[in-house]
Design brief:
Number of strands: 15
Radius of gyration: 21 Å
CATH architecture of the largest domain: 2-Layer Sandwich
CATH class of the largest domain: Alpha Beta
Strand content: 25-35%
Number of domains: 3
CATH topology of the largest domain: Pseudouridine synthase
């Protein structure tokens, strides 16, 4: 196992949380330790090198006011690869054309398929790094969607907005719609799938999800939008009521209707073009009012079948 390069000439940093309250520990570290690869940060947390109030915490721990975060000595935190920074700005320029809405608190994007929301796992930068390369606001992802999924992505521009959005996701007051095209004729009686989902890791380190009675509670509601019997394809609206990793993909696969273009779970369909999964609508409360946003459907959905 490759050992971390420790800079013995530096002392651990001790940071007291104030305006980062409500933020996940991993996101806080990524912002604080600029230039350090995400995989290395996750390793530090897993090994207990990062401490919160003197104890170990998982990466999804949400910081509280007054928490003291101990960051171990490390190298690379202050170095930024100029070429990578230039690439991030170029991506940011491209994403600017996909902004659906922006005000003082929010930025809502129609994220293209094939762009990760953040760097890591072989990706030097994603949506959030690209936006930060162009802007001075303290931008944070309010939620995530998969790299190959297109559609609505909400970015918070104020810490208070981020905390309120995270609370809305936790209490289930966020409603989302995805449009999906699957292989196979969807059973008419299937309106809801509640199979529990468990995460696991492949030998190469990639994370996957499978149906398991020992997994986490999950629920997805489905409505049929259109059917192409000749091609044996179904266009669906999917409404995830929980937010598990790859939830819609695995629930669709569980009844032998894999999402077209899904090279993670539906190898038999091949990489037939893009992943046919699009985050088309979102609704959530913010500042006492209900916000609604909609991302137009990519042309690939209309072209996928005779609907």
């Amino acid at each position: 196992m490759k050992k971390e390069k420790i800079d013995h000439g530096r002392k651990p940093e001790r940071l007291v949380v104030d305006d980062a309250a409500g933020q996940r520990l991993d996101n806080f570290l990524i912002r604080t330790m600029k230039g350090v690869p995400r995989t290395r940060i996750y390793r530090m947390v897993r090994r207990g090198e990062v401490r919160v109030n003197g104890g170990r915490k998982k990466v999804d721990y949400r910081l509280e006011p007054g928490d003291e975060v101990r960051i171990p000595p490390h190298r690379g935190a202050d170095r930024v690869d100029p070429s990578s920074s230039d690439d991030a700005r170029a991506l940011g320029d491209r994403l600017t054309a996909h902004i659906l809405f922006e005000d003082q608190k929010l930025l809502v994007l129609d994220k293209p398929s094939g762009i990760a929301v953040h760097g890591g796992s072989g990706v030097s930068h994603g949506v959030i790094e690209a936006l930060r390369a162009l802007r001075t606001e303290p931008l944070e992802l309010a939620h995530r969607i998969d790299r190959d999924t297109s559609g609505i992505l909400v970015v918070a521009k104020r810490r208070a907005a981020l905390r309120e959005l995270h609370a809305a996701f936790r209490d289930g007051s966020v409603q989302k719609r995805y449009d999906v095209v699957v292989g196979g004729l969807w059973p008419k009686k299937v309106r809801t799938i509640t199979d529990r989902l468990m995460r696991y890791t492949l030998p190469n380190g990639e994370r996957r999800v499978r149906v398991s009675p020992d997994g986490e509670r999950a629920r997805t509601d489905f409505e049929v939008v259109g059917v192409d019997e000749a091609k044996r394809r179904t266009w669906l609206a999917a409404f995830p009521r929980t937010g598990r990793t790859h939830q819609i993909r695995v629930h669709a696969l569980s009844i032998d209707c894999p999402i077209l273009g899904d090279d993670k779970y539906a190898q038999r369909t091949g990489r037939q073009g893009r992943l046919m999964l699009h985050a088309s609508r979102i609704r959530f409360p913010l500042d006492g009012e209900l916000r609604r946003f909609e991302a137009p459907l990519p042309s690939a959905f209309a072209e996928a079948g005779d609907w």
